[in-house]
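Anyone? Bumping this.
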Amino acid sequence: MEDKKERQGFKSSIGMILAAAGSAIGVGNIWRFPYVTGKYGGAAFLIVYLLMVIAIGIPLMLAETVIGRRGGEDASKSFKKLAPGKKWYLSGTIGIFAAFIILGYYNVVAGWSLKYVVNSVTNVFAGKTPSEIEGIFSTFVSSDFSPIIYALILISVTMYIVSHGVQKGIEKASKILLPVLLIILVVLSIKSLSLEGAYKGLEFLYKPDFETLFASKDGILVAMGHAFYSLSLGMGIMITYGSYMDKGENLGKSVIKITIMDTLVALLAGLVIFPAVFSFGLEPGQGAGLVFITLPNVFLQMPGGFLFGSLFFLLLTFAALTSTISLLETVVAYLIDSKGMERRKATLYSGLLIMILAIISSLSMGETLGGFKLFGKNLFDFFDYVTANIFLLIAALIEVIFLGWFYKKSEFMDEVTNGSKIKFEAKEFVFFMIKYVVPISIIVLFLVNNGIF
Ligand code: PHE
């Protein structure tokens, strides 16, 4: 009975691509990619990054969508369908667990973005000195209530969307959020590029500097790690979304489109941020400091900065939201498919637990829980660290070892060609990567990131 249930998938191909691209496009594209590009040699880094995306990102994303579509279930149960009685499903379970933990801190950041939309709209930064602007951010994130309220709002919105299901919730929301996000990006990049001295930002970003790249010991690994995180791999998301893909869909093409969108947004984000930062003579940085401290200073000095600042933080909030939707869906799909729960209930229970995690992560940024440390990190940083450097990599490693070495190659080929109905020229290349190159790369990344090697 249970397996006969109607399982809804994406209605349209474009809806599916927007939902998956929405997952991939997140704060990582905006606050991390542009900075690491500049730092590690501009266009030189970009070339390496693109190679990593082709060599590792695309094969891995295809591996995940193959597992999902063939299994037709959540990220854990899909493995059980493909390899009954075996333990490979643990890859999915680890990924889902990682998604759950990530939701805990990612929502906090999403909440900050929303707060900054409010700050920009209400012109909080007007007349403030740079150190006051810095103070606004540090006081806000370390306070007990306000950031939690914003995180809870974001979680509730995510729950609302996910509770409406794949088509009426996720697909519909993605079809609105992503196009708006793209329009804002284009508007902001035109504005930024038109500022005086914008070329200095472009120079920082895209001037090829192979010396810097090769002189840095970790540039290549940073590119690899970022490709991983940016494409939302290793956490069951693409397996879950893959399970909603139509059997007639061309998986290879879809994966390539999703990847191109993610990369384009990252490149555009660079065009928004650095020309403006350099034009006003500020120092580039990355992460929270860049978007919540440096950029408000930029917007303050920019004519019309009030409007552009509001748009920028709206962009950041939307980027985060489409990612939290995919993370929550991964957890909810597990509760539905593996645990037989009904969607609304699954959303409610997981949402409530995530709220608790978010409260803990947020409090760990202030005095209340800031003194509590795991391996020298507060909980917020700890969650980020263990998911990105341990869970995601282990989940992805198990996945590719399974597909490359233990699953029948003919079944894989069957899935990427829709039972020989379509051609997928790169299939041998991709399979080779999944079998040899991706697992070795993940192992290297794991050893180096965790300081073992
Ligand atoms: N891909 C997202 C980004 O670049 C991050 C993310 C990670 C989203 C994990 C969902 C899950 O910001």
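Late reply, but here is one note on the structure posted above: The first helix runs from residue 13 to 24.
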